[in-house]
């Protein structure tokens, strides 16, 4: 089936409104799609309404950044209740952590000689999430860098002078929040965490003990042998198979909408039906 369970809108760091996104999903002939903005589900009601108008099966989702001793991982919550009070209390704390960090990033950038103001960064966001991508857009537009990835590589990524850490949920907290909101939890782009197969399996088993239910296997840029490895892992561990592009619109122009998912195991749609 043609689906995409990993999409970003202007509510986080994507460039499309929920309505434009749903229309693009229809144009790409997708059947089931999930909005998974970073740290907010505020775009979900508009996205679901737009999906209904476009004849698409819309799924409410979110992408949470999680702190681990082995670096940051991202977990998707699919089929969540965007109104869940427990989830929203945790998200408020995460967004406060972003606000604190954004102030520090701004001060750091000014120290580095970049003339950039909070208003300029605010102006490029469509929602309440202000992230590094928005800083990158302004720095690029002002001619300091030639591409978004160049800003990250030389300034905003970990280890570079404009990098500031922020508060993130722990693994138990993130999985608990997704469960509290009635969602299915999926490890996003697993190979970004580690490409070591033995290590990944050990980490995934730990996440399963905390409630992880699925792996994102059909992901933008994953090679056939990587997807086969992930499929076998999911099957062996009894995890559901997910598919997502991580579409961000014009912010990541090389990522296009839609993934094809084929599985003789459990799919995300099965899990959503079984809840
Ligand atoms: P933040 O949540 O504010 O720390 O920003 C993380 C987001 O920045 C990711 O979800 C990506 O959309 C984007 N990002 C991270 N690293 C890069 C990179 N090297 N090039 C382009 N975008 C990136
Ligand atoms: Fe992003
Ligand atoms: Fe991610
Ligand atoms: Zn994402």
Question: Any descriptors?
Answer:
binds fe (iii) ion, single chain, binds zinc ion, TIM Barrel, binds adenosine monophosphate, 11 helices, 9 strands, alpha/beta, 275 residues, nine-stranded mixed β-sheet
The level-1 CATH class of the domain at 2-90 and 184-274:
Alpha Beta
What is the correct CATH architecture of the domain at 2-90 and 184-274?
Answer: Alpha-Beta Barrel
Taking the sheet with the most strands, its summary is:
9 strands, mixed
The CATH topology of the domain at 2-90 and 184-274 is TIM Barrel
The CATH superfamily of the domain at 2-90 and 184-274 is identified as Metal-dependent hydrolases
Distance between the termini: 21 Å
Overall geometry comes to globular
The percentage of residues in β strands lies in 15-25%
Radius of gyration, whole Å: 18 Å
Q: Helical proportion?
A: 40-55%
Structural class: alpha/beta
Oligomeric description of these chains: single chain
Bound molecules: adenosine monophosphate, fe (iii) ion, zinc ion
**What is the number of beta strands?**
9
What integer is the average pLDDT? 95
Q: Helical region count?
A: 11
Q: What is the ordering of alpha helices and beta strands?
A: EHEHEEHHHHEHEHHEHEEH
- Poorly predicted runs of 5 or more residues: none
